[in-house]
């Protein structure tokens, strides 16, 4: 069996799980490792504590490897929102963002504006289809704009932004700040066209919460003041007392305190597993699963709001049924786990989603389509 087949074999959640864009059931290797690390933390031996402490550097290394960047520029964060806070609070100038972004981008930007007395100012865009395209960004650029903050893959529609094209529109000097929560580990792309990339391990990486990370390019570090810098982010190498050292020159400046080594261990294992399986192979399999979901919805006459082109999507399919509440209930009754929000039903398969789950979806959407005709 290939490493990729081994990886597929590790998906052991109950059939019916199609909610990877919300939470990824934790993988067996992450579960095993966290038990082992927790045992080590329980015996009090300095060597055991040091061993678990090594998880922090391991996580930085493997995240950097997958991003194609320097490990020293990668920070571990409690969440991706924490990473975005570090990125957005220290900017001077206007930052373009869509009002339809996940609030980790939009709310954080607004809070940064308030906290900085509007040294950072949001420049909101509301594209008709919610898609942050190069044209939508180009239309609002002027000399005051210093950055764009964007989700690589939109959490609602599943639209995948073209990072290279956004970089072209921004030019070399403006910052491109990317929320890669819905793409890291399942989409192969050149993240180095960005200046800051944040993500986390609790969805597609199957590593549980507390596993955020943020990468800051040298250009980002020049332009983003480390406003939220804490005790781990200084020029001092150890504990300091009776002095107040300056923020570190490297990416540590964008950290507050010591990361949780158990979370770092989970992140390290989650990222290692996708790296070993191969992100390109995972992307290909996720695309095929999404093809199957779209084909099923089409066959049963349920509208699909997500992009159909593989290059414009990742693992999210937004269905727009005529009666979303009734479809949500039908899916839940069938044991299918999805996200139902407003008029949309978000279906998110992963590479290891099994045929049984897709067949159950087919059956449920089919029965739903027929039921629609039984009007009393
Ligand atoms: C695009 C996007 N960004 C950020 C988040 C929140 O991430 P965190 O919980 O790590 O702050 C989510 C969660 O669903 C998301 O979908």
Distance between the termini: 54 Å
Which word captures the global form? globular
What low-confidence regions span 5 or more consecutive residues with pLDDT below 50?
A: none
Q: Give me the Rg, rounded.
A: 22 Å
**Secondary structural class:** alpha/beta
Q: Helix tally?
A: 12
Q: Oligomerization state of this entry?
A: single chain
Name the CATH homologous superfamily of the largest domain. Type I PLP-dependent aspartate aminotransferase-like (Major domain)
Mean pLDDT: 96
Percent range for β-strand residues: 5-15%
Q: Which ions and ligands are bound to the chains?
A: pyridoxal-5'-phosphate
Number of domains: 2
CATH topology of the largest domain: Aspartate Aminotransferase, domain 2
CATH class of the largest domain: Alpha Beta
Report the order of strands and helices: HHHEHEHEHEHEEEHHHEHEEH
Helix-residue proportion = 25-40%
């Amino acid at each position: 069996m290939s490493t990729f087949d081994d990886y597929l074999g590790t998906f052991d959640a109950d059939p019916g799980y199609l909610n990877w864009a919300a939470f990824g059931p934790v993988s067996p290797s992450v579960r095993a490792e966290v038990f082992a690390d927790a045992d080590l933390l329980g015996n009090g031996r300095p060597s055991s504590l040091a061993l678990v402490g090594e998880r922090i550097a391991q996580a930085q290394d493997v995240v950097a490897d997958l991003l194609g960047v320097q490990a020293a520029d990668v920070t571990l964060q409690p969440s991706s929102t924490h990473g975005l806070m570090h990125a957005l609070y220290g900017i001077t100038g206007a930052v373009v963002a869509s009002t339809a972004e996940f609030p980790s981008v939009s709310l954080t930007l607004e809070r940064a504006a308030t906290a900085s007395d509007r040294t950072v100012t949001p420049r909101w865009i509301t594209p008709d289809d919610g898609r942050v395209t190069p044209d939508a960004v180009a239309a609002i650029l002027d000399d005051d704009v210093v950055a764009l903050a964007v989700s690589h893959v939109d959490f609602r529609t599943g639209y995948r932004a073209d990072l290279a094209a956004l970089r072209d529109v921004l030019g070399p000097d403006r910052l491109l700040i990317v929320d890669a929560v819905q793409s890291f580990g399942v989409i192969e792309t050149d993240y180095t066209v960005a200046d800051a990339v944040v993500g986390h391990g609790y969805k597609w990486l199957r590593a549980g919460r507390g596993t955020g990370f943020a990468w800051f390019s040298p250009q980002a570090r020049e332009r983003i003041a480390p406003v939220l810098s804490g005790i781990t982010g200084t020029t001092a190498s150890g504990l300091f007392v009776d002095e107040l050292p300056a923020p570190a020159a490297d990416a540590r400046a964008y950290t507050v305190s010591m990361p949780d080594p158990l979370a770092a261990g989970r992140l390290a294992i989650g990222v290692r597993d996708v790296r070993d399986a191969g992100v390109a192979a995972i992307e290909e399999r996720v695309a095929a699963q999404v093809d199957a979901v779209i084909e099923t919805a089409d066959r049963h006459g349920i509208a699909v709001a997500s992009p159909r082109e593989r290059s414009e999507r990742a693992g999210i399919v937004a269905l727009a049924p005529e009666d979303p509440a009734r479809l949500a209930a039908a899916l839940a009754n069938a044991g299918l786990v999805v996200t139902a929000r407003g008029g949309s039903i978000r279906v998110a398969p992963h590479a290891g989603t099994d045929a049984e789950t897709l067949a159950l979806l087919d059956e449920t959407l089919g029965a739903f389509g027929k039921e629609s005709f039984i009007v009393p």
